[in-house]
Fold each of these.
Amino acid sequence: MTRTQTLAIAALATAAFAAPVLAGDIYRYTDTEGNVTYVDRPTGAPTEERVPISSKPTDPSQVQARLQSRFDRNPADAGEPEEDPPTRAERAEAERQRVEKCQQYRDQLETYVTSRRLYRETGNGEREYLDENEVLEARSRAEELVVEYCD
């Protein structure tokens, strides 16, 4: 990975996490060597485009209500049979599977971040390249899975 690519990824990550705080514009352009660069001010480059970033505040009361409903849920009240607690072997197997999934999703995310172009295979075995929105969506989903399985 080149220094420019590393900086671009860092800029994108910073922009993604700081956008709600800064609420500024982010611009993306490709230089003559094909390196993608993200900046906070327009440069006038012919390939420059504004990156659409949107966010909305989280409603703490809704989050709290969702969490509380999960903790308050009683299987006996819902008509579900209570389950026996998992055995040590079952817990160990579940942990092994979680670690395996964590590594799988970390590898997948790394591929999504470092690959120049992403594609999916069609039914007849041909490659269909993802557009920028599909790539961002795939990265976002991979990040969610890493958080879910690696925390």
Amino acid sequence: MTNQPYSPDPRTPGYPNIAEPIAPPPPIADNTAQSVNAGGSHMESRNENYVDSTGNQVESQVEVYDNHNLSRANMRNWSTRVIYFVLGVLEVILGLRFIFRLLGASVSSDFTMFLYNLAHGFVAPFNGIFNDQTIGTHSVFELSTLIAMLIYGLIGWGLVALSRVLFAPVYNSRQQVVTTRRSR
């Protein structure tokens, strides 16, 4: 039985008789391989030509291309995403702290205390730079939180710029093209 969805038309020349077993293909008659290494890239190509059991000429070509600059670009993209994700989470936490302090959220709430305790480690280095302004009895305009958000944003931007420098593509002025042909 064949793997075709319908049986072959016996009137078509070149189809083997289904009752006969199909012989394995003969050994490869032509095997051409190339390997090129240029500018941080590596390419391998393999061509195979043979005649199958029904007399058809079969050509198989496989090319493998490894680009070092593409892997560097993927690493740069990954590191940029991670840095911006961490920065985004930190900015949201600090932004919520700023809004909760500005609106005078109750410190008896577990969520408010969790948020204040979580953000305290990130805001602590910036406390005392400016005096925080008290508005009313419970509201505080925290300049230290705004300064922390600004500084962490600049640090994140600097880390992304550093990753772009570290994982920049490597350009090489030397290029090489090799073509190999064999015929019998």
Amino acid sequence: MKPDFYRQPAALSDPSSQVALFDDLPGDAGALSRIVQGLVIHQHIASSYGIALSQEKHAEVHTRSVEDMLKNIAARDSAPLADARAPGDRQVGVCRHFTLMHVAMLRRKGVAARARCGFAAYFEKGRYLDHWVTEYWDLARERWLLVDAQLDRHQQKLFGIAFDPLDVPRQLFVVAGEAWRRCRDGKADPRQFGILDMYGLWFVAGNVIRDIAALNNHEMLPWDVWGAMPRGDSDVDLELFDRLAVLSGEPDRHFEGLGEAYRDSRVAVPPTVFNAVLGRPQEIAEISAAMA
């Protein structure tokens, strides 16, 4: 177990030039989660808040770094971050943006936290949907807890959430490596795992790499594609992903192995990735700088 590795902001989670915005924030995971909910709005749930997003606002989902998210937020409203913005004035993102902002805040307060990529069973019955949550080290209980920083009271009602979003049950959020192992062992149907019209073992494999990248402090967009991520089930390297799934499923037991795996060019985030939503390659300035 290596919580100290996750106590300091790094790469995409580093607020950098905007760090002063975090100075007056509380250090409690629940309070920070509520603050994040007042700063970010989910692209695909905005309409349930009565918000119709412009094309310009939709484009904000491609913002990768916390620093750039904070720049956008502060440019629209210079109030302290603890002051919730009106839904239409919030940074547009997806689950990964809520998670990354939450992780960045926790780390700034000295709390060990990391983003986890996997699948949630609480949005659609019978489906495990592509999702990201925060995992932070609870000192009092001496264990990692999962927090879904996206689930404000509105969404809890919208999706009929009956559990505490500050302690998401492990059976309801399955990290990518565990999802892979369940599918490979015949305990779960790969066709249950994915998002929109994309489901299958190939999708689970892609999230295994995204989770390992996040565990190495590179929390990429959910639609960034690179390395050994397959485009379909026929492209899956079963031997490779069997090994990677063990690391993703038990990251503390295999902490050194995670670092070693990330040195593999098939797994590490390269300076240029393919943005599958925009349909074109994109250079990742933050990653290039981190690798220099």
Amino acid sequence: MNSIDSMSVFPELRTLSAAAAKELAILAGNAIAARGRFSIALSGGETPRTLYEILARDYRDAIDWQHVHLYWGDERYVPQTDHESNYRMARETLIDRIPVPESNVHPIPTSFANPEDAAIAYAAELESAMPLDLILLGLGEDGHTASLFPGTFDPADRRLMIVTRSPKPPLIRISMTLRAINDARNVFFLVAGEEKQGILEKIVADREGHYPASLVRPKGKLAWFLDRLSSEPRIKN
């Protein structure tokens, strides 16, 4: 397991998300003051939904959204209007509720006939923004993170974006590579639910990098935000 700068356990998903939102706002303020912009890669799935709702409600005026740029760490290769779309979830829970300029929203394209072309196009857009100030990640029960699934990608791939295949639908995904993720100034893992307990124990104990999440070793800081159900019984605050 790579070095962790912080691992915090909270009673439930809402308190976990509130703590992550507070830290995110601090990072945003510091980045904007230092470099004039804050770049963040959003995560999909259900866990970050609560974080986005808190940001939209409690930080609409506290964060200078005019200088925030939104990217995505991965995307299901479906139309942006599809209910499985990570972009659509972020649009409904966050983007439509904050004063972020549309020019600052950078979704992964899913309209190319060939998803490889979409990955290439997004890599070109992402390259000019690196290193990102913050990347949000989740943890799958198989140890995957973003859309990097065990045994489906080369950990040493030097590209920024790749096409991957999920073991469950939607099958085709586009994901940041470990190179892109590990270049970040900050990475937050958001992990909630009893079903994550077993894999979380394995990730923490993994010294050899058997799981994609274990290979997240950013140049900057790595923080884990856990709820009580995912962290019991062996991981304590």
